[in-house]
Design goal:
Elements: H1 3-11, H2 21-30, E1 32-36, E2 41-43, E3 48-49, E4 51-57, E5 60-65, E6 71-77, E7 82-83, E8 92-93, E9 97-100, E10 104-110, H3 111-120, H4 122-146
Helix pairs in contact: 1-2, 3-4
Organism: Sinorhizobium kostiense
Domain Cyclic nucleotide-binding: 15-118
Protein name: CRP-like cAMP-binding protein
Amino acid sequence: MALNDDIALLSDIALFADIGEDKLRLIAFGAERRRVAKGHELFREGAPADCAYAVASGRFSLTKADFDGKPQPIGIAGLGALLSELALISMVERKFTATAEEDSEVIRINRPLFRRMLEEYPEVTVLVEARIRDNLQAMIRRVEALAGRFA
């Protein structure tokens, strides 16, 4: 795929929305495309996460182990999904397993590349920080809405 196609894909991802094409060019140029054959894992729950993946084509089933260690479906990620975005900021473990439902392709964005963009473009840091804060506040609201069930 062409660099411009990758830039267009990245611009449709919420974390990268409102970041200019010139800045996304740095990410797209430094990122790595990977093909994942149907049935193969992109990553496994509990593994160290040093990068995020943007789904460029195909679909991935997302599973999380239950208390007995059996995989339980938690969702499907398709075109434009960003998997393990927190890995762009800090060292974390994968929270789920992602397995290709069909032949798929991803854009691998590693942490040093993302940090380079933040260092070169401080205004992007402000946008990313606001998006992360909004995501955390939304998660807190969802947890608070469930609190009554566990009282």
